[in-house]
Design brief:
By secondary structure, this protein is of the alpha+beta class. The chain has a single domain (about 5-155), classed as Nucleoside Triphosphate Pyrophosphohydrolase (Alpha-Beta Complex), CATH 3.90.79. The protein has helices at about 25-30, 70-85, 145-155, and strands at about 5, 15-20, 35-45, 45-50, 55-60, 60-65, 90-100, 105-115, 130-135. Strands 1, 2, 3, 4, 5, 6, 7, 8 and 9 form a 9-stranded mixed β-sheet that branches. A hairpin with a 4-residue loop joins β7 and β8.
């Protein structure tokens, strides 16, 4: 694992990672915005990364919560929309804390995980131009989000209730 904070090419920084219970999200939302969810999909010791059409990099599936959605519902919907995977039995992992640019702000993202026994049929779309299975033991390439790669690595570790930095 990399020492935090780590930054991407746009200057966004992953500054913390915390394993919390899903019911603690409501309390966290009162302190810091939690506008989106990410999903770490694993199969055979590899993590599913999608090539994002807008940011032009490999990253985890996920996205912004729509009005009236819970963080879990957003994760399930984004996973379906971006990959074609129709599964709702995601495991809540915790939250990642970011210092973001454009505009400058501090946010938390809700993190979910699912381990697949079989490689799913993945659906290319306007948002996800390609998919790859990335072993977290491999280095992060120039075309991969270092923030998402670090989130994936940390999501595979179990340490209840602590910030990993």
């Amino acid at each position: 694992m990399a020492e935090l904070p780590i930054r991407d090419r746009a200057g966004n920084a992953l500054v913390g990672f915390r394993f919390v219970a899903e019911e603690d999200l409501a309390r966290l939302v009162e302190q810091v915005a939690v506008p989106a969810s990410l999903v770490v999909v694993t199969h055979a010791n590899a993590v599913l990364m999608m090539f994002d059409s807008w940011r032009k990099q490999w990253e985890l599936p996920g996205g912004t919560r729509e009005p009236g959605e819970t963080m879990r519902q957003a994760a399930v919907r984004e996973l379906r929309e971006e990959t074609g995977i129709h599964l709702a039995d995601l495991t809540f992992v915790g939250v990642a804390e970011f210092d973001l640019t454009k505009p400058e702000r501090r946010e938390l993202l809700a993190l979910y995980r699912i381990e697949l026994q079989v490689v799913p049929r993945l659906t290319l779309n306007d948002e996800a131009l390609d998919f790859r299975w990335w072993p977290p033991s491999e280095p992060v390439g120039e075309d991969m989000s270092p923030l998402d790669a670090e989130i994936a690595r940390r999501s595979l570790i179990r340490r209840s209730g602590c910030w990993l930095s």
